[in-house]
Amino acid sequence: MSGYSGAKEIIVSDGGSSDKTIEIAKRQADTVLIHQGNQRQTIAAGRNFGAAAAQGEYLVFLDADILISDQDAFFSKARELFRADARLVGLTVALRVFPELETFWDKIIFSFLNVAYFVFNNVWGIGAASGEFQMIRKNNFKKIGGFNERLVAGEDHDMFRRLSKIGKTYFERTLTVYHTGRRAHAIGWPKLLWIWAKDSISIFLKGKAASKEWTEIR
User: Fold this and answer.
1) Which residue spans within the chain are E strands per DSSP?
2) Which among 94, 160, 103 has a CA at the least distance from the CA of 128?
3) How far is CA 82 from CA 146, 147, 170, in A?
4) Which strands sit side by side in the sheet containing 88-97, from one edge to the other?
5) Half-sphere exposure of 15 toward its Cβ, with a 13 Å CA cutoff?
6) What pLDDT band is residue 34 in, cutting at 50, 70 and 90?
7) Backbone angles phi, psi at 145, to 5 degrees
8) How far is Cα 50 from Cα 15, in angstroms, rounded to an integer?
9) Per-residue pLDDT tens for 65-90?
10) Residue 200: its pLDDT value, please?
11) 55-206 — its CATH code?
């Protein structure tokens, strides 16, 4: 985000990392928030912590390993989409693994996921989005109570599902964010897809994820 020349506020919400994340963040961010509790913070709680400190009209949630090329052009397009459609409450974009790290299965699976996000959001009107990139109007975020902190996993899809009940969510296929794909590379695609499926079904049926915790992978 430091490559974006427009008005911005960079907030890093740290869940209590033991590496150099905080040290690096303090050099780049406007605000660094550090979780102080003894109980492990959920991803949802960390994102709500950061959102509560934000002053802007839009909230942009990014995972730590995300890269956005040509940030000025990217966010110019994103803001244009919101300004052109008052019904738009949440925006997500295409996902790709960094080309130098991308495997054959990364290409196949993320191509499928991108099509799925297009269909869910733009065709069926059922919000769906991963946590790598989500841009949300702040007033709409507050209206639905932010991320569900009771969810250990799946809070990203749950957020867009709830947003789609009060407005329009949209997948913009001309915009792309890049990430490391580290979780799939560490545990393998079969296991990760199984975890995603279990959590999604459990949240839909029971209102909670099947996963007991979301293991950190760095």
Assistant:
1) 11-14, 31-34, 58-62, 88-97, 133-137, 168-179
2) 160
3) 19, 21, 10
4) 58-62, 133-137, 88-97, 168-179
5) 15
6) confident
7) 85, 20
8) 11
9) 999 999 999 999 999 999 999 999 99
10) 92
11) 3.90.550.10
pTM: 0.93
β-strand partners of 189:
none
For 127-174, what is each residue's pLDDT tens digit? 999 999 999 999 999 999 999 999 999 999 999 999 999 999 999 999
What dihedral angle (degrees, nearest 10) is formed by the CA atoms of 190, 192, 196, 199?
110
Structure tokens at 205: 């049926």
Q: How far apart are the C-alpha atoms of 166 and 132, rounded to whole Å? A: 22
Nearest CA to 146 among 41, 85, 61, 31? 61
